[in-house]
Amino acid sequence: MTGKQDCEWIRTQGRSAARIALPALLAGMLLVISSCSHSNAAHRDVPAVTVGVVAVKREDLSNNLKIASEFIPYQEIDIHAKVSGYIKKLYINWGTHVKTGQLLAVLDVPELNAQVLRDQASVARDQQELARARAELVSGESAANVAHLTYSRLEGVMSTRPGLVAQEEIDVAQGKDAESAAAVSAARDALAAAQQELAVDRSTLARDKDLENYSSITAPFDGVITKLNAYTGSLLPAGTSSSQNDLPLCHLSQNDLLRLVIPVPAEVVPDVRIGETVDVDVPSLNRAFQGKVARVSGQIDLDTRTMHTEVEVPNPTYALVPGMYASVELPVKRAVSALAIPLQSVESA
C-alpha cells in the first residue's frame, strides 16, 4: 500500500478501537462507582465499638515460690533438776503458760539443808578463830614493842655509862626482843591462816546455798508447759549427767513466736532476702499470717540442693500451734521498675 492508504487504514482501525474501548471504559467507571456506594453503605451500617483503655505504669514485679513446711517453737527445752529430791510443791500442769523466773516446783532435799547448816557453823567458828588470831597479834605486837624499847634503853645506858648495867641484863633484854618479834611473826601467820580458812568455808557455804536454791525450779523463759513428767511426791533425779534416764520435770516451749524451716531451691537462693515480709497460709485455719525471713544457713546442702531458711511468725494470741502445716510464698524473679498493666486487661487469642 501507498503512504496515503496506510494513513487511511490507521484512522479506520483507531475509530474501530475507540468504538470498542469507550463502552468498556464506561462500564468500568460504573462498576467502581457502584462498589464505592456499596462500601459506604456498609460502613454506615456497622455500629461504633467502645474499647477500654488501661494506663501503663512502672512497678516492681516478682513471681512467688510456694513452699510447704510445719510450725516449730522458737525454742524448747527439757527442764531438769540441778539436785536430786522429792517434789514438795508443784505449781504447773499440762498447758500452763509461765513467765520468765516463775516458780515451777520446790524440791525437798533434807541432806542439803543439813549441809548448809554445817557450813554456817564452820564459818561462825572460823570467824571466832580469826578474831582470836587478831587479838593475839595485837598482844604480841604490844609485847614486842615493850621488849624492843627495854633493850634499846639498856643498850643506850651501856653505851653512855659502861658498867652501870650488867651485861647479863642487856643480853636478857635482847633475847626477849627477838622472842617477841618471832611471836609477832607467828601471830601474823596464824591470822593469815584463819583468814584463808574462813574464805574456804565461806566458799563452801556459798556453793551449798546455790545448790539449795536449785531446789526451787524456775522457768528460764516465757512459754507453755507442753509435757509434764512428774507430780507431787515424785523423786526427781539431778540432771547433771548425760544419761538419758534422767527424767526432766517438764518440757517448756516458747510458742508466742514460731519458726518455719523451709528448704529453698538453689536456683532461687539469690532472691531470698533476710528481713523480707512473706505471706504464710495456714490451711487448717483458713487464714493467712504475716511472717519474716529471719535467718539463712548461708550454705547449700549438697544432697538436696536446698538452703536452710527460717521464717519467723509472731503468735501473740496462740492461734497457731506447733506442728500445724503452712505454705510460705517467697517472692522471687524480681523486676524493678518494669512496665506493667493489669492481668485482666490481657485477653488471650
What features would you describe in this structure?
The chain is α+β, with helices and mostly antiparallel strands and 349 residues long. Helix content is 40%, strand content 32%. The chain is built from three helices and twelve strands. The strands form two sheets. Strands 1-8-11-10-9-12 form a six-stranded antiparallel beta barrel. Strand 9 and strand 10 (287-301) form a beta hairpin. Helix 2 runs antiparallel to helix 3 (167-213). The longest helix is centred in the middle third of the chain and has 51 residues, at 110-160. The chain is elongated, with a radius of gyration of 53 Å. The two termini are 73 Å apart. The model is unreliable at 1-7 and 36-43 (pLDDT under 50).
- Element-level helix/strand string: HEEEEHHEEEEEEEE
Biggest sheet, open or closed, and with what strands and sense? Answer: 6 strands, antiparallel, barrel
pLDDT under 50 segments (min length 5)?
A: 1-7, 36-43
Name the helicity range: 40-55%
Q: With helices defined by DSSP (H or I, 4 residues minimum), what is the helix count?
A: 3
